[in-house]
Amino acid sequence: MLTWEERRQLVKIATLYYTEGWTQEQIAKKIGVSRPIVSKMIQKAKEAGIIEIYIKDESIHTVELEQKLEKYFNLKDAVVVPSVGLTPDLVKSAVGRAGAYYLSKNLKNVKRLGISWGTTLAELVKEFPYVRNEDIHIVPLEGGMGRKYVEIHANQLAYELAKKLNCTCSYLYAPAIVETEELKERLLAMQDIEAVLEEGRNVDIAVIGIGNPHRSSTLRKLGYLSDEDLNYLRKLGVVGDIGFRFFDDFGNVIIDSFTNKVIGVTLTELKKINQVIAVVEGIHKLESIKAALNGGFINVLIIDEQTAAAIVENW
After folding, report:
1. In the chain, fewer beta carbons within 10 Å around the N or the C end?
2. pLDDT digits over 75-88, tens only?
């Protein structure tokens, strides 16, 4: 139990250090003790409850969410983007911008960078800065051909990102989903297609999106999924997709006649990539994101605040 004098001394030192901005050396000279003793007294004041640290910043809530996501799902990193009061379009833009910044700062020693497809990744590429890095090669992680929404296909995003980095890229000249498994096998037998897929399996970093095929589905908008397909996927327990590959609530990969017609890196292959960065937003994807985390498909998550909070609350 501290005496009144001891407590008074600790309060005085704490005030000089935290309120007046004195250094420990200056305080030591004033009260006639060594600097290490001042350091011990500051620690003692903390333990006694005299000093309580508060961080006053609007980012503190998002930082706490990041720490919980990293802890709960064993992530290497999490970035939670403030989204309160923003429209859905602005949230998508903010998350894309955060993804662009994170990626641009984490390209050291990266030789091959894989990119998937989707509207959020299109925002990332749009916001990515022009930084020369000629040693990198960009690889699309799945096919994607056609005339609809070309700007969000993996090939196009690989090309646009390569322009920003002033580097080279590959093109996967094949549809993302073909009509039959036989056609898929014929396409995979083509050397150019198999070579790009092999590049995709061996990238240093993969940047992906996560989709919910049942709500606000871009797959449906593109015409890849019909109502009949969606009913079928629902019966299989599908709650999310990454690069046209589907998984259930527990993160188990769904392999069936439909998913066997996809041309791209598989989820099993994705898990073997050193760093997989998911850039995703939208509360409608809550189940899909949780399932992807449960499946261990990603190790870096860049996400909006509202969805991050819902994931943590429902963990």
Report:
1. N
2. 999 999 998 889 99
- Rounded distance between C-alpha atoms, residue 184 and residue 171, angstroms: 17
Total residue length of the chain: 315
Angstrom distance (rounded) from CA 109 to CA 32: 52
Q: Where on the phi/psi map is residue 217: left (φ > 0), alpha (ψ -120 to 50), or beta?
A: beta
DSSP state of 262: B
Amino acid at 233: L
* CA gap 210, 280 in Å, rounded: 6
pLDDT of residue 219: 79
Residue 4 has pLDDT above 90, yes or no: no
263 token code pair: 């041309």
Residues 181-212: tens digit of each pLDDT: 899 999 999 999 999 999 999 999 999 999 99
Phi and psi, residue 238, nearest 5°: -70, 130
AA letter at 24: Q
Residue ranges and CATH numbers for the domains of the chain are: 4-47 (1.10.10.10), 60-313 (3.40.50.1360)
CB 119 within 8 A of CB 92: yes
Alpha-carbon gap, residue 302 to 59, rounded angstroms: 15
